[in-house]
Specification:
about 140 residues; alpha/beta; 5-stranded mixed β-sheet; 6 helices; about 40% helix
């Protein structure tokens, strides 16, 4: 399992498995957010199985699932709410970690410098510089989280 750190409180990973949950707990994570819909996964990686294992390990679990084609302001708002509600540090997962990085970037566009956001995502292995104009627009139009 690969964990990519965007901030001290938020990391992302490609799809996790039930067997990864012990490692996630041992790494000190307090919460897990699933950003990947079940229809993208085999039955062994469905949300219910991972959620049950996460809860059994004493961690919090939340869903904010979306396909790239359904990403929008509602998903950004929901991720922002989850990041305020859930104990940190948080591990979010999807197919590759990219959509978790994108939703984090947009959720923080009003509270962080865009250069800092892009540096964090690039350092974690996610090149999001093509989203700079949208992040800057979001920063101008949103209230900080």
């Amino acid at each position: 399992m690969q964990i990519n750190y965007l901030s001290p409180d938020y990391s992302v990973a490609p799809q996790i498995a039930v067997a990864d949950v012990a490692t996630i707990a041992e790494a000190g994570f307090k919460s897990v957010i699933c950003n990947r819909p079940d229809q993208e996964n085999l039955e062994t990686h469905q949300i219910a199985a991972i959620k049950a294992e996460v809860i059994a390990a004493g961690l919090e679990f939340a869903e904010n699932v979306f396909a790239p084609s359904t990403f929008g302001p509602d998903k950004i708002q929901r991720q922002s709410e989850l990041l305020q509600e859930l104990p940190s540090p948080v591990l979010a997962y999807c197919a590759s970690g990219t959509r978790c990085s994108i939703v984090w970037a947009f959720a923080h566009a009003s509270s962080m410098d865009i250069d800092s956001i892009l540096t964090a995502t690039t350092s974690a292995g996610y090149q999001l510089s093509h989203l700079r104009p949208q992040l800057e627009s979001t920063a101008l139009n949103r209230v900080a989280v």
